[in-house]
User: What shape does this take?
Amino acid sequence: VRDGTALSVRDLTVSYGRAVRALHGVSLQVPRGEVVAVLGANGAGKTTLMRAISGVLRFHGGLVTGGHISCAEARLTKAPPHRIVAAGVVQAPEGRRVFGRMTVEENLRAGGFHAPAEVRKRVFDLFPILAERRTQRASLLSGGEQQMLAMGRALMARPKVLLLDEPTLGLAPKMAEHIARTVAEINRQGTSVLLVEQNAALALRLSNYAYVLDVGEVALEGPSAELAASDEVRRRYLGVS
Ligand code: ATP
Assistant: This one.
C-alpha cells in the first residue's frame, strides 16, 4: 500500500457459489482524506464490492477467490468484520438496517460502545435530529432520519474510511441533498469515504475520483470532474443525450 492510501483493493475476484462470478479483478484506491465514488448499473457488483471490503460477504453466500484488500498497515482480505472495523474501515449498515426496536441512543451505542463523549458530540453535531430523537425508537424515524442514524452509528466506531452503500436511495431530493452535504462535512473533518451510488450526478459532485463498474469489472475510472464532463459518462450514467 502506497503511503497516503487509506484503502486499497487489488485484483479482487468474488464468486457466489460456483456459478456466479460477481467481480473479476477489481482494483481501486481510496487516497487518505478523499471521497471516492463507485458507480454502475444494477447488478454491476457495487454491493458485492462493499460486502467484500467490510467482511460480510460470507454471510451472503459469497467468497473472495482472489486479490487483496488492505488499509494503511493492515491486510484485510477475508478478515472477520470486527477486525476490519478495528482497522478503521466501517460501513454504515447496509440498506440502513438500524435496530428498529431500540432507541436512537441505543443504536448509536451499538456502533461504538466505548466511544468517548466527543465522538458522540460529533455525531449529534452532524445530525441534530438524532439528539432531539435520542429516546425514540428507531423504527419511528423517517427514511432519511434512519439513514442519518445508520451513518451516525458507523461514525461512533471512529472510522478512518467510511463505507457508504447508496446513502440516498429512496430519499426525496431535498433529503438526498442534505445527506450529500453531510457526507462532504464528514470528509472535511478528516474521514476518507468510499461511496457507492446509483445517483451518478450526486456521486460525481461529491467525490474526487470515481470508478464505473460494469458486470464485475472497472470499465472506466478518473477524476470525478473529468468523468462528469465525458460524453460517454453523460450519455450512459447521467441520462444526458
Ligand atoms: P444493485 O445496485 O442492484 O444492488 P449491484 O451493483 O450492487 O446492484 P450486486 O448486488 O453486487 O450488484 O450483484 C452483482 C452480481 O452478483 C449480480 O449478478 C447478482 O445477481 C449477484 N449476487 C449478488 N448477491 C448475491 C447472492 N447473495 N447470491 C448469489 N448471487 C448474488
Summary: The two ends are 40 Å apart (CA to CA). The chain has a mean pLDDT of 91. The pocket of adenosine-5'-triphosphate is lined by residues 16, 20, 22, 40, 42-48, 60-61 (CB under 6 Å). The CA atoms of residues 8 and 29 lie 5 Å apart.
